[in-house]
Fold this protein.
Amino acid sequence: MANEIGIDLGSYKTVIHSDSKTLLNLPSVVTVDSETYAPVYFGEKAKQTLGRTPDTLECIHPIQHGLIADYDIAEAMLKNYMEKVFGKNVIRPKVVATLPTGLTELQHHSLSNAVESAGGRSVTVVEAPIALAIELGVDFTVAEGSMIVDIGAGTTDIAVLSLGGVVSCDSFKTASYDFDEIIKNHVRRKRNIAIGSLTAESIKMQIGSVSPRSIEITAIAKGRNLFTGLPEAFEVTSGEIYKKLHESALTICNAIRKVLESTEPDLVSDIKKKGLFLVGGGSKIFGMAELIADYTGIEVKTVPDPELTLVKGAAKALSIPGLLKNINYQARSIKELEIH
């Protein structure tokens, strides 16, 4: 049994990974009793109750925009997941957990405490770009700029790395979840039909795109007619979904541009030569890599399993001697490196 693991406590999924394999990959959702707030269901079973609960139950997303929104529920969820992997009577695993860039020390401590209370030990919290760079094989210790864009469910992290730290970065709340909400709102306005989060996610994965498709495709879905209150099937096309998602995708492109504008010209030149890395589940939406490349003029490099890159890097960090000794809840900045 692995005694060193990486944890990606994401808005959409919680993933636990050892140095060789993914040990757990479950939704970050908990169904609780409405009165006592006691957890009833975790993970996949809790996700299936979204939009389907009676008044006695409530679905909670304890992680929102990459941060712990409900500490007690997040701790209970993590404890449940750790027990699924390790059981109740085992040696506590050593953990590296990740958080978005630019957060406070208090937020780093909050995650560390939650992981330790759930069963981890010697918990180290690192900023996501550092873990991503490790898995991508990017040497961020040299005087050369590297850029990583991570489009997750709740946040999009953009970072430029050089000399062992984060030179410039942004972490903002336009991400994959926003695409689901856009689809829900579009169907509601266009067809007067209300759909749930699971249906919106299904439409996004089937026909969602941020760049035009050469051949238009359609999806059939079901929802509730707002006028009659009755269930109704409807058809939605990739073309109309593209028009709605494209604008939010441009928000991500603009954020990348702003990070480049705040980066030293020599580092931007490095990035132009090397290209930027695009990871995260949101990167899988049709046309995302092409849109960013066209908008920035920079080659975009993708990976086979973009949603697992972060947690794999966190697990791999434990096997690199000396890497974590310089990290105290937060990756060092360039200014801190210059001081030391």
About this structure: The first strand starts at residue 4 and ends at 9. The chain has eleven helices and 18 strands. The first helix runs from residue 43 to 47.
